Amino acid sequence: MRELTLENQRLADEARLTMGTISAEDIELKRLEAAKPGITKVSWRPDGSVLLDE
């Protein structure tokens, strides 16, 4: 069932890309986030450095 949902999302994203309502970068970010939840989220410290989860 999950595979079907992901395939439907991919096809919808391809249609949006063709229509110009979504960019290839946005599609890739969605794909990465689906594969590894949280990977596209970055926590920054006030000094501009990246805060890593430990």
Could you outline the blueprint of secondary structure elements for this entry?
Elements: H1 2-19, H2 24-35, E1 43-44, E2 50-51
Antiparallel strand pairs: 1-2
What can you tell me about this protein's structure?
The chain is mainly alpha-helical and 54 residues long. The protein has one domain. 56% of the residues lie in helices and 7% in strands. The chain has two helices and two strands, in the order ααββ. The protein has helices spanning 2-19, 24-35; strands spanning 43-44, 50-51. The chain has a two-stranded antiparallel sheet. Strand 1 and strand 2 form a beta hairpin. It is elongated, with a radius of gyration of 15 Å. The termini are far apart.
Order of helices and strands: HHEE
Spatial arrangement of strands, main beta sheet:
1-2
Average pLDDT, rounded to a whole number, is 89
Principal-axes shape call: elongated
Number of helices: 2
Brief write-up:
The protein is mainly α and 54 residues long. The protein is built from 2 helices and 2 strands, in the order ααββ.
Give me some keywords for this one.
mainly alpha; two-stranded antiparallel ribbon; 2 strands; elongated
